Amino acid sequence: MIRDPFPLPCLLAEDALEAISFDRGMLWLVAGFLLLGWVLARMTISRRRKAIQQRGESRETQRRLDSQVKTALPLSDAPIETQRWQVAMFDLQRELTGDLDTRAAVVQNLIRQADQRIAMLQELERRHQAE
Fold first, then answer.
1. pLDDT of residue 21
2. What is the pLDDT of residue 94?
3. Confidence of residue 121 (pLDDT cuts 50, 70, 90)
4. Which residues cross the membrane (predicted)?
């Protein structure tokens, strides 16, 4: 007859198995809780990753906005079509300003000539009245 070298642990293991006898319903309940825990853990990890990613993107966006140098020209960092439109508007502004300056100079010259003629006519009128 062969004696079991460890009779006591075997008895404890058998008693433990008898104490933990699961019926089918209890097994499904434990499996459900494990599945629920796994899903919640995945959702938490996913949410943390998204938050970290969004913080990184917002930091990158803020860094880009902070690194942009403000220039004296408006719209200097705008798309090329907008810059072309801006150049055309500046050219039109220069042209119109030149036209207005020229017309203002002509009007001032005409007013000066009219003042001179008025002064001459007044002088002639005084001479005529003095005679």
1. 65
2. 96
3. very high
4. 26-45
The pTM (predicted TM-score) of the whole model is 0.38
Which residues are within 8 A (CB) of 30 and not within 5 positions of it... i.e. 6 or more apart?
22
- Select the more confidently predicted residue: 19 or 42: 42
Domain definitions of the chain by residue range? 1-68, 73-131
For 83, other C-beta atoms within 10 Å of its C-beta total 14
CA atoms of 103 and 68, how far apart (whole Å):
43
- Tokens coding 112: 């000066």
3-class secondary structure for the chain?
A: CCCCCCHHHHHHHHHHHHHCCCCHHHHHHHHHHHHHHHHHHHHHHHHHHHHHHHHHHHHHHHHHHHHCCCCCCCCCCCCHHHHHHHHHHHHHHHHHHHHHHHHHHHHHHHHHHHHHHHHHHHHHHHHHHHC
